[in-house]
Amino acid sequence: MTDPIAIPPAAPIPSNIRAVLTEPFAFWARPHLIEPTGLRAPGALRHWALLTVLQVAVLLCVVVPIMLAWKSAFDLAAPNAFDGMGPLALWGGAVLLGPVLEELFFRAWLAGRRRALWAMAATIAGLALFVALGRGNALAGGGILLATVVVAAGGWFWLRRRVDRPGWFVRAFAWLFYANALVFAAMHLANYPKITLLALPMVLPQLWTGLMLGFIRLRIGLIPAIMTHIVSNAVTLGIALTWG
């Protein structure tokens, strides 16, 4: 039994700014699957813009200062993920390519559509096989990557008309939502030269960002989440390059 569950239509977009800005916090108190409105819905572009302003404002005015205070208090090293990269590589990688790839991997499947869940499962399985068998062997590695693309794309095409969500996904959604944000943040610990318990608060910006992007993906859609990620990274990188 697949126990399929249909998700009700998207809720109306709030009409006032206060309702828009408090909506994510109400959602985080009780995460649940919602049908994205898409950017073409009336008021959706304004909705996205306000949520993006909230993301960047809280990130820069609250979360990053807390992270920097922690870094200073314990004399922790700065991230070294982009050491030696020129401005063009920084902007292309951190502002354009990074957000697109991260949103596809972390948020594309978060709405629970069967085609996206299949593609995500195939991708994870393919990456695991590549790490286990494909590294250092061009033929095996290429075969695994090609098979992963074929299996992911084939399943996506086969399931493209299914709009219901698996029952297990709906029931576990709150856990999956928070796990997604935590894993997204923890992944960025690799930006630091040494991973310790003291380094955990250094990824608070990524945790906040993961929570916001998860909400935007579910409330409006994947493309708006990518757009917010790009804007957030662009503003942060611009400030870092300008003022250090």
Automatic annotation (TrEMBL):
UniProt entry tagged with the keyword Membrane: yes
Keywords, sorted A to Z: Hydrolase, Membrane, Protease, Transmembrane, Transmembrane helix
UniProt keyword Transmembrane, yes or no: yes
Biological source species: Novosphingobium hassiacum
GO molecular function (one): endopeptidase activity
Highest rank taxon of the organism: Bacteria
GO process terms (BP): CAAX-box protein maturation; proteolysis
Family matches, as Pfam families: Rce1-like
Transmembrane segments: 48-68, 88-109, 116-133, 139-159, 168-189, 195-215, 222-243
Protein name, per record: Membrane protease YdiL (CAAX protease family)
Residues in CAAX prenyl protease 2/Lysostaphin resistance protein A-like domain copies: 167-235
